[in-house]
Structure formats: C-alpha cells, structure tokens
Amino acid sequence: MKRLFVNLEDHTASSGFTLIELLIVGAVIVIILTIALPTYSNYSIRAKIGEALSPVAEVKSSTASVCREGRTTGFLTNQVVAYKFKASKYVKNIVLSGTCNAPTIILTTRATGAKPSPVLTITGDFDENAEQITWTCVSSGLDIHVPSICRN
User: In CATH, what class is 43-150?
Assistant: First the structure.
C-alpha cells in the first residue's frame, strides 16, 4: 500500500474573485453606463424626431407642385396644397403658411423624449430660374436632439 502525502503549504491554487477585482469590474461597468446611456438616449430622441420629419416631405412636394403651377397663389395653407394632416405618434401638428416665394412649414413634435418637445420650422426659398424650392430647417430644441439638417 502506498501512502499519498499532500503538502498543504505548497498548494497555491485559488478559486473565485477577490473583493478588489469585483470592485474594479463594477467601477468599469458604471463608467461605461455613464457614458453610453446619455448617448443612446440622445440617439433615440434624434431618431424619433427624424421619423417625425418624414411627413414633411409630402408637404414639401405638394407645395413645390402648387407653386410651380401657379406662383400667383395667395397664402399657402394645408388645404391649398391638398395636404391632410394626420397626427402620429411623434407629430402633434404640421401647419403650412406663407406664400410661394417664402413657404413655411411648422412641425410640432410630441412624445420624443426631448424636453421641451422641439418645434421645427422649415422655410423655403423659391428659385425662379430653377423652378424649385430650397428648404432650410431650424429647431427650437437642443441641437443634440434634432437631425443635423435642423441644427442651429
């Protein structure tokens, strides 16, 4: 019979994590979340406002069509360009105003997560030579919450 002797003093293997290692991992996770959450939140708001801008393309197209056909049209309204506004998840209201020389579309957003909810003002400039409208956009909201085309 052989006897097996185990020297416990030479045994150096350990299992598990030390408290310091757990604290370091926790600190790294907190730092990553501190950076990532605001960035994701701003991205999410920008995406919602970008989605709210999509119906404006129809208003722009209808306005350009009406203005090309008859630039003597008086003041523009949603009815003049035959645009029926339908509220959506992120759009509270879209109002067309102005004339063919300087049309204005005011888009009021809602439920985007931005505080306060931005109001986007899209103004047009009719180019007589090219017979097209050049659009610009400004926002009442924070620049980090709106798409780049509407930043001040």
Answer: alpha beta
State how far the Cα of 146 lies from the Cα of 117, in Å rounded to an integer: 10
Q: How far apart are CA 107 and CA 96, in angstroms?
A: 9
Nearest to 114 by CA among 55, 40, 53, 46: 46
pLDDT digits (tens, 9 = 90+) for 5-61: 555 555 555 678 899 999 999 999 999 999 998 889 999 999 999 999 999 999 999
DSSP H or E run through 128: none
The pair of structure tokens assigned to 121 is 């003002």
Specify the 3-state DSSP secondary structure of 123.
strand
Cα–Cα distance measured from residue 117 to residue 68, given in angstroms and rounded to the nearest whole number: 34
- Nearest Cα neighbor of 49 from 121, 123, 117, 96 is 117
pTM given for the model: 0.77
